[in-house]
Each structure stands twice: as structure tokens, then as C-alpha cells.
Design brief:
heterodimer; A: about 475 residues; alpha+beta; Cytochrome Bc1 Complex, Chain D, domain 2; two-stranded antiparallel ribbon; 13 strands; about 10% strand; globular; B: mainly alpha; A middle domain of Talin 1; 2 domains
Chain lengths: ~475, ~400
């Protein structure tokens, strides 16, 4: 049943009035429409009504531990389960250099970052930043670009390298370079005197194989994200997202919310996925990552992106057909779209409820929009017409200079990032055995992630700093219950 | 009205009033819905049934005894494997290799039964401490460990520069370092070293014992070190799991839980193993991709025996530890159905192991009957998991089973 009322009613003593008001409203609903948008199912378990304990709607799964992000949404058909299962295997298995005896998994590289999807998104979870300065990057990659000489506001690919550093390669082809990160500690204080420490990263690239990088190089680190609920986010009607957009901040609350339009001159499609919302759909996100991160061609990207001067890359063996078939790409996409969102933990815990109150009180919900109703996915009914609780508006917000990468991406400025979904965040540790958050994993847990917020989120962050410790902890507990 | 509601719902940030109205409406609608739905359903299942706490406690005792016995057996079988591998490494010959392979099969069968105790965050796959990833990770990219056809220099064994030392510690740090399938340890790494790549359409891998003889093949010494280290690691990891059960620390945790939660864990293990693992990852993927290498024991062609042992493990929880007794009084019909389905699956898998064909041959077989045989097994595994899931629902136990 609908349990979000708990947090609401805890602030509203007048139950009778609400019941009466609601009753009238209910009668109105019943009269106006027999096929109400609010109630769509009468089964005993989570229904198609809003139930925040089941953030993924009826497909929500009940799982904690290492597999918390790996289960298919509940209620898919046998055929969909087949596609999911095969997609899962494609996701996890290493690709090998062609030509090879394994016919369905050949074609890695020539340049790449990793050998399988699952190596960065381990157990469908979040990548982890290197543990030390000399550690290899796994699950964290560097996007690069350089301002166009003619139009410095426009970013273009870096000559000889392209738009990301590919740190690995097949035999006989030099890898592009080795990314490195070092951290500087920054300290600060809460209003009650408690101190905190943040890690501020600096990125460098060593062992450059294709010449020097330009001095005005822009680097944007991107951590592999956890994958639950992507299909649901893909299905939110565009209008519902745009309803929250306020690019000019007309309501003067200091918060804009800008859509990232990916077409020429700011036209459709609308970006939804990636740290800067630079991909419009799960399918396109998959195909781009396959090519960029693993060097796998698909019917969406039929050619390798060997750059000028990357001679060995250009000469490397290539198959006649694309390395991944459309059938497998669709299976992989089905897999990613159907990964189920885990049920919340400690949903009625008094501290969690208090934290939820604080969440609204300091207005985290202004960007981390709690809920949407999905539209219709023509293929997967489990994604359709669901009330979901992703805690994101999927829009871009200025997050301040501390988090800025100064690398515009389509319409996203160098200071803007897409609001990250919060569902499943409390299970990151279970799945990935680390608690590193934000776009490059610099934050060690929810507290530090909040403290990095700035720009449009500055006032929320400052409110957080002023909160009594008890409320700060309650807020964190609430976020970790998501 | 319904359209207005959506606009005013929580998806809308600008209309603050919307939140409150939305909550009120949803609450009232759902309250009324539950009243009417309750009335409609009262004939069948009005309220979730509750589990009998005493029955659950008695079951958990029996379950603990069963698990303890099976992990003790598994550990003993792994130690025997370690002994046989010591013998093989000291004096590599066709005979000592066969002895090691037989010991591996016995160890594998014993372990496969215990997979019914996975998937709920117990000692085997606890989020922080569970060694499952070291013991049983699969699939395996063999060229990460040793040379394969066309890549004679590949793998840790042949890369002295990057991996100067091969011992327990270095292997542990490499496993799952860079990709879920870079599996440097566990049953399947040992299997690969004993059998080698399966390049045969009719039988298992045919690695020669001479791969372990100095002068016969490059890096034979490092191959021996690898095999020894990886087997010792397996024993160590199983010791860890075993002791968490034998010393009573995990059973105590399990029994301290509300009966509902404890039973939910145990049953999630059973349904996940049959539906997602056995039917899904272990059979369906191979069948769909028609890829010979896509089987659990792809080097030894032992997958069918694994599957049968998995099912025996499930059946033991149901019958020997008598999980069914927990539900017998109030859900006798479901219990009978589940008993029947579990036995049927076991029989199907048993006859499977007597086949002249191996798993990979069936996967690539052109004979329609082979495919149908496999599909029947998958269907049976789905069905038993669904029946368990449906019965569990009556007690509001959530097992993540697809309907």
C-alpha cells in the first residue's frame, strides 16, 4: 500500500480533514474516469500506484548484497527473460582480439578501455576510482576535448586522440596513454564544529603515444554508473521532464534545470543518460560505450574511430560484419533496460522518516525529484505506466566550480551536471564494496557527495552544514534507504 | 481529473500544492482500493498467512545440520583434491593427472550441492566477506591464466615480467581485478589447468600432463606453482565458509532473525539457483547462443553432473531438512505440487547425466530432440521456482521469482 503517507502525515495532524478531503477527491476521480491513471492494478503486492517502498514500480526486486543490482525486474515475459539472460552473458563476458575461435565475442579494440561491460560495471554496479596514484583506471575514464580555434565555446575532438583516452590496446597497436589521478585533501567544518575532509582530484595523462596533447586540453573524468532502472528512466515522458525545466530560472529560486538537447542547434533528441545527459536512450548509450570503451562495432556505429596518425589502429585486422550483431545489441539493451530497482530498506524506520523530512526541508527534492510516472514502452510492459521513485529530474544543473570539468558537452556547460538518480544508492557498498560517489568517485559516501554540491545546490549544501548532527545523520540514513 | 493528478503529482516540482494533494488522493484511493480488493479476495487469500515460529525454529536447526554436513564434505573433498594435485605436481604423469581430475570431479559435485545455500548473503556470498567470487566465478577467460590456441604467450603463467611471482597472495589480488571474467582462482581455474581448452567437439579438453614437465613446455614450473597455489586458495576459502557454519556464528544470526526473514533467505537461495542460475545462466544462454564454450564446466564437460548436484542440493533442503513441513499444515496442496516438481526435475537431470552426449554437444546439436530435452529441463526448473514463489507469496515472502 501507499506508505509515503507516513512521512507526510507525521507532519499533518488533521487526519480526519484529510480523509474527508481525500474521499471527495476519490469520488471525483471515480466519476471523471473509470480507468484512473492512479490505480492500475489490484494485485496483492506492489501495485501501479505510487508506493515509495517499491521505487521501481511493480518490477521492483527484493534483494540486498552483491546481487542487489543484478536481478531482472519482476513481471517480465519468458521471451524477455531469455533476452535478459543472454544479454547478461554478453555484458559479463570478455571480448577477445579478432580473429579468434570464439566467433560471437571477437573484435576487441584496436583501442579500448576494457574487455567487458561488466569489468567497469562490476555486478552491474558503479566503477571505482583507482585506489592509489599508481593504480590503473578501471571503471573510470577520461573524456577529452579542445576548444575550436575558430569558436572557443565549441568543443572539438583532440587531434590524434579523439574524445576519450583509451588506455589499452590489442597487440601491435600502441595504447593512447595512461591516466593518473592524485588527490589533495580539503577540510571544512559543520556549524556545530565537527570537521570534514574532502578529496580534490587532479588528473594527468602519461605515456602519450600519439604526440603531445594541446595545452588547452579539457578533461572530464567519468565513472561507470550503476545500471538499475535505466529502462524506467528511458520511459518517462519527455513532457514530464520538461515540465520541471526552468532554464531561465523564472521562479527565481536559484535553480534552473536545463534539458540537454543533443540535435544540431539545440534540437531533439533530449539527453537522458550519462553524467551530462549526453545520450538519448539506453540503446544509443550502449552502442556508444561499446565502440568507445571496448572498440566493438555495432550496426549503429559500423566503423572504428581510429584517428589521424593512429596508423596501426587503421591497419588492424577487421571483420567483414560488425563485431556485434543487431540481435545481440538488442539483447544487451533489453538486459540493461530490465535490471530491476531494489526495494527500499528501513522504509518505516523513524530516523529514515526524519531524514526524509529534512530532505524536503533543505530542498534536495528541487532537483532530486522524487517521483515520476512512466509512459508506455512499446516492448516492455513492466516499464509502462509505473510510478517510480528515482530521485532525479534528469536535467542539467550548475554544480559550481569545485565539480566543474570545464568541458561543455552538447548544451551542458562546463559547470553543469545531470542530477544523479538516488535509487539504489544505499546498496552501492553491498554491490561494489566501496562507497565512492559523484561523477569521478571523489566522494567517500553520501555525506561528502552532499558537501561537494555547489552552484545551484549551494543553499541546500549550506543548510546541510547548519543542520544538527542528528538531522545530518538522519538525512544520510534516508538517502541510504533509497 | 486523472491528467490533472499526474501534473500535480510528485513529478512536478513547481506545484508545491501538488505534493500534498497527490499524497492525500493516493492515500485515500489506495485505502479504498484495499478495502474493496480485500472484499473481493476474501474467498481465497484475505490476509497474508503467518509462519509458525516453532516450526521455523525447528526447520532452521535441521537446515543448519544439513548445511554443516555438506560444507564439511565439500571441504574434505577439496583437501583430497589438494593432495592429489600435490601428487600430480610432484610427479606429473598421465596417471597422477587422472587421479587429480577424478578428485576435482568429486570436489565439484560436493560443492554444487552447497550452491543451494547461496544468493542470500550468507557466509558464502556475504557482501563484505563472502569468498564465492574466488571459489566459483564463471565464465572464465582462459587466456588470462595460460596460453590458448593461437596465443602461445598469453596469460599470467607466461608473463614473468608483469607477474614475477605466482603464489596465493598474488593470485588473490588478480582475481576479478579487471573484469568479471578475469578469473584467476577457484574450481574453474583448476579445471582449466587440469583439462585445458576444450577444442574437441566430442570430448573434454585434452591438456597433456607434459605441460607440467620442465623442458616439455614453456613455464612448466610456473604452471605447477599456479595449480598448487590456486588449489590451496580454494581450500582456504572453503575453510572460511565452513567455519562460519560449524562454529555457530552464522546459524545464530539466522535464528535470531524474524522467522519470516530467515525463511525468505533460505527460499531465495532455492529459487534463485533454479530459475536464474541453472535455467538461466547455465542452460538458456548456451542454448540461445549455440556456443559450445558457454557451459559451466566447459573444460571438463562436467556441467550436466553439476546441474544434477545443484538440484539434489535444492531437494535436500526441501526433503531432508524438511522445509516442506513449515508449510504443510496450511498449504498442503502447494507442498505436494512442489515435492512432485522438485523430484521430476531431479529425475530429468539424472537421466541427462546418463546421456551419451555432453552438455556442449547438445547445445550445438542439430537434432531437434536434444534441444527439446534441454528446454524441458529449463521449463521444469522455472516451474519449481514459480511454485515456490507462489506459495511464498501467501506468507508475503518475497523471492524475486518471475511469474
Amino acid at each position: 500500500m501507499f506508505k509515503s503517507k507516513q512521512s507526510f502525515f507525521s507532519r499533518r495532524p488533521s487526519l480526519v480533514a484529510i480523509y474527508l478531503g481525500g474521499l471527495v477527491a476519490f469520488l471525483l476521480v471515480s466519476v471523471a474516469s473509470t480507468s484512473s491513471q492512479v490505480v492500475a492494478s489490484t494485485s496483492s503486492q506492489p501495485m501501479s500506484i505510487a508506493n515509495a517502498e517499491y521505487p521501481g514500480g511493480q518490477g521492483t526486486v527484493t534483494q540486498v548484497g552483491g546481487r542487489a543490482f543484478s536481478l531482472p525486474a519482476l513481471g517480465i515475459t519468458d521471451e524477455q527473460h531469455k533476452a535478459f539472460t543472454v544479454g547478461n552473458s554478453i555484458f559479463r563476458t570478455n571480448w577477445v582480439q579478432a580473429p579468434a575461435s570464439v566467433t560471437t565475442l571477437q573484435g576487441l579494440g584496436p583501442l579500448f578501455n576494457t574487455r567487458s561491460c561488466g569489468s567497469c560495471h562490476q555486478q552491474d554496479g558503479r566503477g571505482s576510482p583507482p585506489r592509489s596514484e599508481r593504480d590503473e583506471f578501471v571503471g573510470l575514464l577520461l573524456r577529452i576535448s579542445v576548444p575550436d580555434a575558430k569558436d572557443p565555446l565549441r568543443m572539438i575532438d583532440v587531434p590524434g586522440y579523439g574524445d576519450q583516452i583509451q588506455s589499452q590496446s590489442i597487440l601491435g597497436v600502441p595504447a593512447e596513454g595512461t591516466p593518473r589521478v592524485s588527490y589533495k585533501e580539503i577540510t571544512g567544518k559543520f556549524s556545530d564544529g565537527e570537521t570534514f575532509t574532502l578529496l580534490s582530484p587532479t588528473y594527468t595523462i602519461e605515456n602519450l603515444a600519439y604526440g603531445d596533447l594541446p595545452k588547452n586540453l579539457r578533461i572530464s573524468p567519468r565513472l561507470a554508473q550503476q545500471l538499475v532502472g535505466l529502462g524506467l528512466l528511458d520511459t518517462i515522458p519527455e513532457a514530464a521532464l520538461l515540465a520541471n525545466a526552468d532554464p531561465e530560472d523564472r521562479d527565481s529560486n536559484g535553480i534552473s534545470g536545463r534539458p540537454n538537447w543533443l540535435g544540431p542547434n539545440g534540437t531533439a533528441p533530449l539527453g537522458r543518460f550519462g553524467w551530462k545527459a549526453n545520450k538519448p536512450s539506453v540503446l544509443e548509450q550502449d552502442a556508444a560505450a561499446l565502440l568507445g570503451d571496448m572498440g566493438i562495432t555495432t550496426p549503429l556505429h559500423k566503423n572504428q574511430e581510429c584517428r589521424e596518425g593512429q596508423v596501426a589502429c587503421q591497419k588492424a585486422f577487421s571483420l567483414k560484419d560488425t563485431e556485434m550483431s543487431m540481435q545481440d545489441l538488442l539483447r544487451l539493451t533489453a538486459y540493461m533496460k530490465l535490471l530491476g530497482v531494489p526495494k527500499r530498506r528501513g522504509f518505516l524506520d523513524p530516523e529514515v522518516l526524519q531524514g526524509e523530512k529534512v530532505f524536503h526541508q533543505i530542498q534536495c527534492n528541487q532537483c532530486h525529484t522524487p517521483s515520476f510516472k512512466t509512459g508506455v514502452d512499446p516492448e516492455f510492459s513492466v516499464l509502462s505506466n509505473q510510478w517510480i521513485f528515482p530521485y532525479t529530474d534528469l536535467l542539467l544543473h550548475d554544480m559550481g566550480q569545485g565539480l566543474a570539468d570545464d568541458r561543455p558537452d552538447h548544451q551542458a556547460s562546463g559547470r553543469e551536471w545531470r542530477t544523479a538518480p538516488l535509487w539504489g544508492i544505499g546498496l552501492v557498498h553491498d554491490v561494489s564494496r566501496h562507497d565512492r560517489l559523484l561523477h569521478d568517485g571523489r566522494a567517500r559516501g553520501v555525506k561528502e557527495a552532499i558537501l561537494w554540491h555547489d552552484g545551484e545546490a549551494k543553499s541546500a549544501k549550506e543548510e546541510f552544514i547548519k543542520l544538527p548532527k542528528k538531522d545530518r545523520e538522519a538525512l544520510i540514513k534516508f538517502v541510504n534507504s533509497l | 481529473m486523472s491528467t490533472d493528478l499526474r501534473q500535480l503529482g510528485p513529478g512536478s516540482r513547481n506545484a508545491k500544492v501538488g505534493w500534498k494533494l497527490f499524497y492525500v488522493l493516493s492515500f485515500c484511493v489506495s485505502t479504498l482500493m484495499s478495502v474493496s480488493a480485500g472484499a473481493a479476495e476474501s474467498k481465497s487469500a484475505a490476509k497474508p498467512k503467518t509462519l509458525d515460529a516453532a516450526e521455523v525454529a525447528a526447520f532452521l536447526d535441521r537446515y543448519t545440520d544439513l548445511v554443516k554436513k555438506n560444507y564439511a564434505d565439500t571441504l574434505a573433498a577439496a583437501k583430497n583434491l589438494r593432495d592429489k594435485i600435490e601428487g600430480f605436481v610432484k610427479a606429473p604423469s598421465a596417471e597422477t593427472q587422472v587421479a587429480a581430475k577424478e578428485a576435482w570431479k568429486a570436489a565439484r559435485l560436493s560443492y554444487s550441492k552447497t550452491e543451494a545455500y547461496r544468493f542470500y548473503g550468507g557466509p558464502i556470498d556475504h557482501a563484505d566477506t563472502g569468498p564465492e567470487g574466488f571459489i566459483n566465478a564463471w565464465p572464465m577467460d582462459e587466456s588470462y591464466v595460460d596460453s590458448v590456441k593461437d596465443l602461445p604467450k598469453s596469460g599470467i603463467i607466461n608473463d614473468k615480467q608483469k607477474f614475477p611471482k605466482i603464489d596465493k597472495e598474488s593470485l588473490r589480488s588478480m582475481n576479478e581485478k579487471d573484469g568479471e571474467t578475469n578469473i584467476a582462482t577457484g574450481y574453474h581455474a583448476i579445471e582449466f589447468l587440469l583439462w585445458g581448452q576444450d577444442l574437441s567437439a566430442t570430448g573434454p579438453g585434452e591438456r597433456s600432463y607434459e605441460d607440467f614437465v620442465d623442458g616439455k613446455k614453456d613455464n612448466a614450473d610456473r604452471r605447477r606453482q599456479y595449480l598448487q597455489a590456486v588449489t590451496s586458495l580454494l581450500v582456504e576459502d572453503l575453510e572460511k565458509v565452513n567455519s562460519a557454519w560449524q562454529d555457530g556464528s552464522f546459524p545464530k544470526e539466522l535464528k535470531a532473525m524474524p522467522p519470516h526473514d530467515a525463511i525468505q533467505k533460505v527460499m531465495t537461495g532455492l529459487t534463485t539457483l533454479s530459475f536464474d542460475e541453472m535455467a538461466g545462466e547455465r542452460m538458456m544462454v548456451a542454448l540461445e547462443k549455440k556456443d559450445q564454450e558457454n557451459e559451466q564446466d566447459c573444460f571438463s564437460d562436467f556441467s550436466l553432473n553439476d546441474l544434477h548436484a545443484n538440484q539434489l542440493g535444492i531437494l535436500e533442503v526441501w526433503q531432508a531438512a524438511d522445509l516442506k513441513k513449515v508449510f504443510l499444515k496450511s498449504e498442503s496442496k502447494s507442498v505436494a505440487k512442489i515435492s512432485q516438481e522438485l523430484s521430476a526435475s531431479e529425475k530429468r537431470l539424472k537421466s541427462f547425466t546418463n546421456f551419451t552426449k555432453t552438455f556442449d554437444q547438445m547445445v550445438i546439436s542439430k537434432d531437434k530432440k536434444d534441444r527439446q530435452t534441454m528446454e524441458a529441463v529449463i521449463k521444469g526448473l522455472h516451474s519449481q521456482a514459480r511454485s515456490l514463489g507462489q506459495m511464498a507469496k501467501v506468507y508475503s515472502l518475497e523471492l524475486n521469482v518471475q511469474e
